[in-house]
Hints:
The chain is 32% helix and 24% strand.
Amino acid sequence: MKPAAFDYIVPGTVGEAVGALAEAGERARILAGGQSLILEMRCRRCLPELVVDINRVQGLDRLRVEDGGLQVGALVRHRAFESPRVAPGPLGRLLSRTVVNIAHPPIRALGTMAGSLAWAHPAAEWGAVAVGLDADIELRGRAGTRTVAAHDYFHGPHRTECRPQEMITSVRLPLLDDTVGVAFVEHRRTRAGFAQVAVAVALTVLDGVITQAFIGLANAADRPVRAQVAELSLIGAEIGASLCGPALFGSAHFYPDSLDGHPFGHAARIAAEGDADPCARPYADVEYQRQVVAVLVGRALCQAASDRQAHAGHDGSAGEWR
Length: 322
């Protein structure tokens, strides 16, 4: 099918873009990468009367570190995050491990983080990272700029805090210090499909004890969620020196029963039962969905602990807690 007829403008400034949105309201859509919008328009599931192409708006492609965070402009493409050097330390590693799960190279060359958050698909990887790290999303409208925390931004599938007269101008992710281990894990039914469940984890570990935990889940509910109950169960928990080897933490075959009595096994079950709110799907009932959440949270926690250990060392050597 072909899209229904629509008007098309290419503003040169954010002011021009939000001015057009203010006039058109719910009849307008923003075009950045267009990886989801164009498909929806072709299938006539989305019928905008006006498409506002922001690709020529100056300054929206900036990616910079400032004030303890990574500021990601609305036109920064997915592929910018493929190198772990995109941000200092653990944040760069987390972003690079996340982005390779997004579609394939042509999509990553055009799609944007801000566009993914604006589209708000429950399975989108950036949603898990944004909610898990408690990112800030900057929205600009004719009335001015406001900042919304990621956990307040998502309202449900394709529904967000962004008003029809507003657009995302940037996303701010907090930097993570060197005591943090990170991981991103997801499961797909097919190589080309959306994530059945995706998990982003950041663990702060000092002397083998977890002092802070962030767990973001995608496609475990009708929106990205932060597994706060599971996080709380990990605070103060000892990982245990005997369980820190790569044979366990580097394994892709973790199941909750693999660590009976260990904080990771306990947290994995809590995330599945207390934080996730999955719905039944044609290929999986709710019980199965919860099992997937438990398995992936456990694997992500193991990998985050392994990542922390690999970059630890009070004397500069890897493999020792500090």
